[in-house]
Amino acid sequence: MKKLNLYQSGSGSMLIAAIIFAMVAFMMLGTVLPSYLTDYRTSVRNRLLSSAFALAEAGGEEAIWSAYQNGWDVDAWKADADWKAITGADGETYYVRRVYFPNVSLGGTYTGYAKVAIKEPVRGESMEVVAQGIIIDEKGNDYINQIVQVDTNMLKPFVGFVSEDTLDLGSGTTVSATNTDNFPTIAEALADRDSNGVVGSLSTSSNSVQLANSNQKTPANVSAFQIGTVITGASVFSDAVSYSGTVLNQTSNYTASFPSIEHPSASGNNGPTSF
User: Fold this and answer.
1) 3-state secondary structure string, 35-83?
2) Phi, psi values for residue 242, rounded to 5°
3) 166 neighbors 187 (Cβ within 8 angstroms)
4) Which residue in 56, 141, 269, 271 could disulfide with 148, CB within 3.0 to 4.6 Å?
5) Positions of E strands within the chain
6) pTM score above 0.70
7) What does the alpha-carbon distance between residue 257 and residue 259 come to, in Å, rounded to a whole number?
8) 132, 145 contact by CB (below 8 A)
9) Is residue 234 within a helix (H) or strand (E), and if so which, with residue range?
């Protein structure tokens, strides 16, 4: 029988060790690779979820811009070529559009856009805005979507400014009001201010509303030292409010709440109808 020399025996041992090491390495790779791929896919999906939410918010901004232009005027919405009137599944009328962002990169082959719907506005009620951000994959399919809902109210310039704590308008401030929607320019609106401004504070502390140094200028059509309505949370008006001139209306024991504003919720649905 032929005997192996020491050199040949060592070579055989190294080969077996290399094979065992390779097998262990492949087993470890087979265990780690699926976990890595899962983490990678999760990371991409989370990034695209954020992108879809950003697209929805951008679509909502487009709706708010149009709301500033058209307001609660239904005829203006019907005449706006950027929006199309449809009837939703609930029987209500919605003005809808798609908003594209050609200069926005979402990474890889992904693209996206926003669907926006505004329920036909009714004066005196909140305007309902729904915007949906949609991510499209490389095959052209809807991959991810997020939706944002925003309720807006009509601006009431005659309401004025009411503070939760102390209100001090400082020196030279004129308390007046005007609705700029009724004038072609801001300059004309400012020149036609009235004395219907409302100011005040919910605080019940003494001297919580300090107007003694304000309202000492006389713009056009505004009587000097005249303030429309002053509100205070205190029971005794004179204890809480200091002013110069004339207050047309006084309100004491005034209460109101300042609720916290929650972040818009996001979920996956297709809005009032397909568009």
Assistant:
1) HHHHHHHHHHHHHHHHHHHHHHHHHHHHHHHHHHHHCCCHHHHHHCCCC
2) -120, 130
3) no
4) 56
5) 84-87, 93-100, 111-119, 127-136, 142-152, 161-163, 167-168, 198-201, 209-211, 226-232, 241-243, 246-251
6) no
7) 6
8) yes
9) none
pLDDT in tens, 247-266: 888 888 888 766 665 544 43
DSSP state of 181: G
d(CA 233, CA 245): 21
Both tokens assigned to 10: 């060592």
Rounded CA separation 133/116 (Å): 9
Q: Report the candidate in 161, 167, 110 with the shortest Cα–Cα distance to residue 134.
A: 110
DSSP state of 2: P
| 3-state secondary structure (DSSP) of residue 177 | strand
Tens digits of per-residue pLDDT, 13-30?
A: 666 766 766 776 666 666
CB 201 within 8 A of CB 160: no
Structure tokens at 99: 């908003």
CA distance 69 to 75: 12
Strand-by-strand arrangement of the 167-168 sheet: 167-168, 209-211, 241-243
